[in-house]
Design a protein that fits this description.
single chain; three-stranded antiparallel beta sheet; globular
Length: 155
């Protein structure tokens, strides 16, 4: 699991910027980018790995290296930062076109993370309903849900 720390707004170097964009402009954003994943796909095929869990690992590992991507507001409105991001993803059910929400505790070690996410994905594939695996305790308390869905366009 993961913990978090409250950001000290009195000493935080980005305080003025944060308050400007959240209080004055009330900015919210999403980013979509085309990313060449050919090398990852080739690696997965050569090693027998599934692409989706491998991409979840790579994206989560990258996001965990950037402090600003780990920030959130707690239930009291205080700005905080997770010690690490835990990936939250969906498993699609072909038979009825619904999906189940799932999460896997993150490990920097791919050989540890990969079998764990495969196990969680297998569980989610057999359980219908929005929450195939209950929220991890920290996120349930805070009502937060980070999600990532790699979209693939093959030319």
């Amino acid at each position: 699991m993961t913990g978090y720390k409250k950001i000290n707004m009195e000493t935080w170097a980005r305080r003025e910027h944060y308050e400007y964009y959240t209080k004055q402009l009330k900015v919210e954003y999403n980013i979509t980018a085309n990313v060449d994943v050919k090398n990852v796909l080739d690696f997965c095929h050569s090693k027998g790995y599934k692409f989706y869990p491998a991409m979840i690992y790579l994206v989560t590992k990258t996001l965990n290296r950037i402090e600003n991507f780990k920030m959130f507001k707690d239930k009291y409105g205080y700005l905080c930062a997770w010690d690490k991001i835990i990936p939250n993803y969906t498993i699609f059910h072909n038979d009825d076109h619904t999906f189940s929400d799932c999460w896997t505790d993150f490990s920097e070690d791919f050989d540890t993370f990969y079998p764990n996410i495969l196990k969680d994905m297998a569980t989610a594939a057999t359980k219908k309903g929005i929450k195939s695996i209950p929220f991890c305790p920290e996120k349930q308390e805070l009502g937060k849900n980070e999600s990532q869905v790699p979209m693939v366009r093959i030319p």
